Amino acid sequence: xxxxxxxxxxxxxxxxxxxxxxxxxxxxxxxxxxxxxxxxxxxxxxxxxxxxxxxxxxxxxxxxxxxxxxxxxxxxxxxxxxxxxxxxxxxxxxxxxxxxxxxxxxxxxxxxxxxxxxxxxxxxxxxxxxx
Length: 131
Known about the structure:
Layout: H1 6-12, E1 14-20, E2 30-35, H2 38-49, E3 54-58, E4 75-86, E5 92-109, E6 114-120, H3 121-129
Parallel strand pairs: 1-3
Antiparallel strand pairs: 1-6, 2-5, 3-4, 4-5, 5-6
């Protein structure tokens, strides 16, 4: 089901993006997440199908069902999906390992998934400090 082409992801650092409500996670955490929105489930499945990372972004207002770039914070986290289970109810449980922070440059959504163009926060910090 890989919707995003691998060349699009690598060249532009475009990753499937999962918006979270009422939860903030940090690097070096291993966290279970419950995914329920159809587009969010499709986004996780996209990351799993392409064996790529999943970007987790954080919503400013948890009441918004279909977030736009103005509805999310500018920093998210890159994660690796360690485990996923689909429940009979339609929900998906995933276990993610948080790798590092990422700066969100742009946020996209199509009929099936969310995606974001990112810049690694580590690279940004290094360029600011001159290292």
